[in-house]
What does this fold into?
Amino acid sequence: MTDSVTILGSGSALPTFQNSPSGQMLSLNDKSFLIDCGEGVQLTIRQMGLKTNRLYCVFISHLHGDHCFGLIGLLSTLSMMNRTQPLHIYAHADLEKLLRPLIDYHCGDMMSFEVIFHHINPRKQIVIFEDRNVTVETIPLKHKVPTCGFLFTMKGQRRYAYISDTMYSPKIVPMISGVDLLYHEATYTDEHDARCKTTTHSTARQAAMIARDAEVKNLLIGHFSARVDDHELFLNEAQEVFPNTRLAEERKTFEF
It folds into this structure.
């Protein structure tokens, strides 16, 4: 079975007509893993006809709303669909403090499955999940709040790296060296690179520099700022540094 990632949302904090906030569905062997869950992710899942019966884990990179506001709606919908299998959520401990009261209030006794929270420290590089097919490791990033990326290593040695919101950080290069597919946030183009320091984000060119230096095979860029309407600008600037770059266009699936 081919491993793949489906882009559910590739915009930044402000939704646009082109993009919804962050979310990806990673399909590995017989399981699906949701990475981040911005507002509208469950709608895209439904519209695309993606199956949720194999959804086993959710990984949340950080607690800015555009990466987690969609969770309570998704959990409610899964309960209405009579899910019985437990759902494991890996995130900063504060997520459980925020989400548990909402689950109790909105779902209460109607909840058809158990939600199991696993607290992670985004500032440490550590294995947080492992089964017979895949290992998931955190990648500490540089953002305004505790944030990490995730490295998925399949037993067949294929690897996928998800780099969420971060400033340009060469420290991550050894952690993602040679991965088959790298997703790296690319919020801004060169025109707005001065905003990277104040917002702690990266440009498309900086994402490509990370991909080049890590010698990855392929790069996906996303988390596009609402300030830039023409996404080809992101692609052109990244490809000047790393030709094997593609846009993380929503509702597209990329195999690796």
About this structure: The chain has one domain: 4-255. The mean pLDDT is 95. The first helix runs from residue 41 to 48.
